[in-house]
Amino acid sequence: LEAKPEEKKPEAAADAPKPSNENDEADFQRPGGGAQGRGAGAAPGGRRKEYGTDLVLRNLANGNERTFNDALDYSFCKDAKTLVFTVSARKEESNGIFAATPGTDAAPVELLAGKGKYTRLTWDEDQTQMAFFSDRDDAAAKHPKVKVYYWKRGETKASELVAAETVGFRSGMVISERGGLNFSQDGSRLFLSAAPPPEPEKDPDAAIPDDEKVIADLWHWKDDYIQPMQKVRATQEANRSYRAVYHLAEKKFVQLADNTMENVTPSRDGRWAIGTDDRAYRILIGYESFGGRNDSYLVNTLDGSRKPLLKGQRANVSLSPNAKYGLFYDGKHWNSISLPDGKITNLTEKLGVAFWQEDDDHPDQPPSYGSAGWVKDDKYVLLYDQYDIWQIAPDGSSAKNLTDGAGRKDKIEFRYVRLDPEERFIDPAKPLLLRAEVEWTRDSGFYRDKIDGNSAPEKLMMAAKSFSPPTKAKDADVLMLTASRFDEYPDIHVTDSSFKSLKKASNEGAQKDQFTWGKAELIRFKNTDGVALT
What we know:
- The protein is 3% helix and 35% strand.
- It is an all-beta fold.
- The chain is globular, with a radius of gyration of 28 Å.
- The chain starts with a strand and ends with a strand.
């Protein structure tokens, strides 16, 4: 089945319906979200009015089609059993959100209807429930307020979930469409954002007395930011929103972030969140070389309580998949924080190798080599040194060189290859695919290793080429990647997990055969300090 916009009618808006953004897991890694904006036409108060076009649902097996008029936005379920779309018509009474069942001629079910707009169709992971914004109850206002509505798949109507009148919603705030709208991984919590209402618009035609026609930049030495930075940040600050959560089972709304702790990043299950507050350190931005400090907190999303974790650090705390631990890099070492007690354990100080980039020469704390991610059930975290991968228990009870020191011994950089883009943790039962690059020759290729293994990494393939990260077919042992060098175009190749042979699947490089091409070679030399370089 396929849903697609029909060819535009002359009287329709300039843009056709597009699929809605669904649950974006990136919102659980960083604060913020996105708002949609399409269509044309002016609305009262300067708001842009968006009109829909025809949305065609086509059965790809037999070519049968159904057309839904004035559709502005849509979301197609992964199982292809439900198509949800919004309507924005010139006859505004027809606006609403509807659910259609592909493969039948049944009329779409009206989930919610009325004047106004319906945006940000957001599914939970299992696609059994949906949330969205609508301003239908305030559509006539110059700056209409939106509410969050909720629909459980299979039910005939959507219901109001969160509004400014909801218990726990702070006075002087409104629901923000600019913030994210996301379910937690288990679907038990819905994250949204609140913000102060927009400033009243000034009448551009209003007469301004001559004695008020003054343009000045006012700054005080105790201000958080110097005046030029305040001007740069003005739009960002005006659009700032603060994360909140609605607990579906408890029917409870909790405001998590505010101007005392602006950034809150929830765990995947939504039980905990990491909050940061940089107010005490903003003035240091003009004095310290790079970055900024902040205080970090563990936030209980059920009641909004905050527990201090770190003070004055330039570290970003990330949560493990099961939210048992926090992980941060302090400029030299990796550290874990057990949750919720907040105990900090230095994971790398006794391992005898550097986990900071030793050749970084910026006048600042060096960055780390990075992390490969977490093993299932938060059992281990995999961390990189310059060459090898380390398997470390987050409570500090064990640490093992996963690649058995082969990287440092042979000057080969090993890095984990994530074949599944939706992977949340590393499965210890499956072999690890590692990308390898030889420091001295720049040859690259792939090795195989395993969690809790006792042998050195197994070499699968190495060549004097550059290989892109492979992409694996979902239901077959087939991998796709590119292979290139200075005189070889990065054509697509396919192989299997053994990497015994690469089969070329494209021949775009043939285009350069008509040209006289150059060549490249490694030049070895010593610098004035006697260091061997290439």
